[in-house]
Amino acid sequence: MTASINFKRDVLPHLIAVLVFLLLTVVYFAPVVFEDKGMAQHDILQFRGGAQEIMQHREKTGEEALWTNSMFGGMPSYLINTRYPGDLSGAIHTVLSLNLPAMAGNIFITLLCGYILLVTLGMRSWLAIVGAIAFGFTTYNIIILEAGHNTKSLTIAYIPMVLAGLFYTLRKNLWLGAALFALGLTLNLHFNHLQMTYYMLLLVIVWGIVEVIYAVKNGTIVELLKRGSILLVAAILAVGVNFGRLATTAEYSKYSIRGKSELTAPNSGDKTSSGLDREYAFNWSYGIGETITLLIPDFYGGGSSTPLDKDSETYKAFVGMGAPPVQAEQIVSQGMPTYWGPQPMTSGPVYAGAIICFLFVLGLFIVERRWTSWLVAGTILSLLLAWGHHFSAFNYFMFDHFPLYNKFRAVSSALVIAQIMIPLLAMLALWRVIRDRDVIKELDRKLLMAGGITAGICLLVWLFGGMASFASEVDAQLLQAQYPVDAIRADREGMMKSDAFRSFAFIVLALGILYFYVKNKLSATIAIAGVGVLVLVDLWTVDKRYLNDGDFKEQVIANYFQPTQADQIILQDKDNYRVFDATNPFNSARTSYFHKNVGGYHGAKLRRYQDVIDRHISQNNLEVLRMLNTRYAITGDQKQPVQRVPGALGNAWFVENIEKVNTPDAELEALTGFDAGTTAIVDVTKFPVQEQNYTADNATIELTTYEPDYLKYEYQAAQAGFVVFSEIYYPAGWQAYLDGKPVDHLRANYILRAMQVPAGKHTIEFRFEPKTYTIGNTVSLISSILLLLVIAGAIAYGFKKKEREEAIAV
User: Fold this and answer.
1) Same domain membership, residue 481 and residue 407
2) Which pTM does this prediction carry?
3) CA distances (Å), 695 to each of 678, 720, 722, in order?
4) N or C end of the chain, less CB within 10 A?
5) How far, in whole angstroms, is CA 185 from its chain's centroid?
6) Main-chain phi, psi angles of 597, to 5 degrees
7) Which helix (H) or strand (E) holds 759?
8) Residue of 385, 363, 350, 368 lying closest to 203 (CA atoms)
9) Does 372 share its domain with 492?
10) Tens of pLDDT along 78-102?
11) Is residue 727 part of a domain?
12) CA 110, CA 93: separation in Å to the nearest integer?
């Protein structure tokens, strides 16, 4: 028996859903879609700065530059801007996102994947649209776009599709589900934000444990193992499609700050030898009390820089202090530090929605335990992880012992699990109310209980929230700057109470709709539409606090990268050298857009380079700047915007002395007080050097060809010598050639390349040709073809054959 397609029943509802999502997206991001505007997303601007050299090389040659010298002296481009032509999944994403501009496409695909998850559960289309809105417009999805975390956003967006594939494989059609799972995981991995994928994996583990327990209880463990093995194959295929990206990332991580430190200096108790420093990783920990922002968005004052209006107490205080009204309005409209929570700073709260939280609590009472057990467990795990050092006993154990967990920072991001679990259980609860109002006993009482709990919390905050101190660590600085701190605290209190009453009102309205539906006073269509509109209005209006039409400007990239006077002065020098931006050396990649930068901005720079930053560059060690061929420093002084760095050593030079050390600690320490022009420091336990006297007399070397991943030098020396190159040593891909023949090179001065060279006139070349990239692309291409075949085969099978298994009731 073949399956027949009824357009009105099987296709039209989904087309309508896509049109609804498209409409919501283009309305929210109208300036992006219709006016070609953008916004100053911090991380995107830093990405463009760091990627400029790579993009220019690609445009000029059509080839990938797998190395760039535009940041931190030089680093692989894998985590900056590298294309993997073997991975064809990017084209699938383009189709699914309708090729919408960035940000708009992110939210559209989030809505679409949320819808796919709910439809696979069996929900009606209109109900799934409501759930998709809850998934898509949670504030975190909007806030991370404002910050420029586009790849994080897209990785999160595909998590519901992965879950849809898992559910469909385990509960319904094996082959269609496995194909959907493979596709979802492929696209999730494609955007290479492995921290978000890691959180998803933790969630899947929780789900898997629950499924195993129920399979043992129901005697279906063999069937579960069979379906699980198919999922494993699908996961391997998804990894295969992304193998090039994952392999190069894994290789690089060993040498980055995410990898093991080679230094043996005693740790302070909060460091790790195989990952990030604990303090760095847990710096952004969500406060335990701050969790209530899931229900009341501005419970802790919203963001660290919140625009206020003329009705604010802060505005009135500035006027009272003598500021002209226009000036006072301008000051408060630029943003006040209303956030008073425990994080160093934040762009805004993680708000799941008042109605969604109400429905989540309702789900605890009416949704089957097989669902609530893992959804609640996943939510609790998410909260515990996000609390970070506020719940140190658990989280430090995880950080020190759980595989790979110490590679990730900003643990507050773990709330992405909750922002998927909470809407999912909420929609299961709403579905149960709509579907089974005549079956569930005392449903009206349970509705009132859930509403009473959530609305009651909001009411208590509204009535008694003023008992809090509303004090922040930043207040001391504000007092020194003569800001009206008492007024700012009053505004913090007002924001808390206002949002508490706001959430209370939304819960009461949604409760009223569902209560009248249960009492047969409203139809299912009106109930779904009413709740859906309330959910949309609730989330949309809060989202607009953090990303609205006023944030979008014309020519954002072009305006940000207008060359300054300092840039123009330096760019007159057409030689090959580096620049040190003393105004903001290690937290901005703007300088990298124009110059080869000693600094830059990246969350995974080389660990050895970070060691040198911490111990020497930040301590103004001139010899280190000299060996990095730092010719110019940007001072930030209007009278003298550029300063020539004395004694820059050039692209390569001959040295006379080898200072031998036996440990990385000694190698790093030796950079203090040495003469970089005459001495090279070598760890001879790793790089044995010949015992001989070197001389730099009558020896010259010149860089004759420069490309990001290819360097050519010509040198002439009367006798054998030792050359230090002002290039960062990285063993996984750089190969040296002497007169066209491969030769070994070594590391000197902790971070640079060096080579023992014979007398005479010779050519030295360095080529960056990592085998991992080449092999990875081949594996990715083969896996991409297999994935497309699997998807096509599964779709054909799903529509031409009757399902072999009976769908298990949700």
Assistant:
1) yes
2) 0.91
3) 9, 8, 8
4) N
5) 17
6) -105, 135
7) none
8) 385
9) yes
10) 999 999 999 999 999 999 999 999 9
11) yes
12) 12
Distance between CA atoms of residues 333 and 327, nearest Å = 10
Total domains in the fold of the chain:
3
Candidates 577, 605, 641, 601; CA nearest to 49 is: 601
pLDDT value at residue 801: 58
375/477 same-domain check: yes
Same domain, 218 and 327: no
Residue with tokens 């009976």: 806
Residue 174: other Cβ atoms inside 10 A:
21
Compute the C-alpha angle 516/520/525, nearest 5°: 80
Among residues 535, 558, 573, which one ends one of the domains?
Answer: 535
> Strands 700-707 and 652-655, how do they pair?
unpaired
Residue type, 559: N
Q: Provide the token pair at 704.
A: 């004759």
Shortest CA distance to 632 belongs to which of 680, 562, 679, 585? Answer: 585
CA distance 304 to 300: 10
CB 359 within 8 A of CB 367: no
Q: Do 665 and 693 reside in the same domain of the chain? A: yes
Q: pLDDT, tens digit, for every residue of 444-481?
A: 999 999 999 999 999 999 999 999 999 999 999 999 99
Last residue of a domain, one of 479, 504, 535: 535
Q: Is residue 456 located within the same domain as residue 371?
A: yes
Is 212 inside a domain boundary?
Answer: yes
SS3 188: helix
In degrees, to the nearest 5, what angle opens at C-alpha 783 toward C-alphas 778 and 784? 100
- Virtual torsion, Cα 580, 582, 586, 589, nearest 10 deg: -70
| Residue 721 located in a structural domain | yes
Q: How confident is the model at residue 800 (pLDDT cuts 50, 70, 90)?
A: low
Residue type, 605: K
- Give the total residue count for the chain: 810
Hey, which residues does 38 pair with through a beta bridge?
553
Count of other CB atoms within 10 angstroms of residue 468: 16
- Alpha-helical regions (H) of 661-805: 664-669, 771-800
For residues 241 and 232, give the distance between their C-alpha atoms in angstroms, rounded to a whole number: 14
Same domain, 245 and 334: no
SS (H, E, C) 283-338: CCCCCCHHHHHHCCCCCCCCCCCECCCCCCHHHHHHHHCCCCHHHHHHHHHCCECC
The token pair at 40 is 């100053």
Amino acid letter at 241? V
| 524 belongs to a structural domain | yes
Based on its alpha-carbon atoms, the radius of gyration of the chain, rounded to whole angstroms, reads 30
Whether residues 785 and 762 share a domain: the answer is no
Determine the residue type at 160: P
Average pLDDT over the chain reads 93
pLDDT of 803 above 80: no
Nearest to 570 by CA among 652, 517, 645: 645
Please report which helix (H) or strand (E) contains residue 742, including its range: strand 741-743
pLDDT for 358 beyond 70: yes
Q: How many whole angstroms separate alpha carbon 96 and alpha carbon 192?
A: 18
Compute the 3-state secondary structure of the chain and give helix, strand, coil in percent, each to the nearest 5. 55, 10, 35
Give the structural domain span for 147: 92-252+772-810
- Structure tokens, 755: 């080579």
Q: How far is 90 from 82, CA to CA, in rounded Å? A: 13
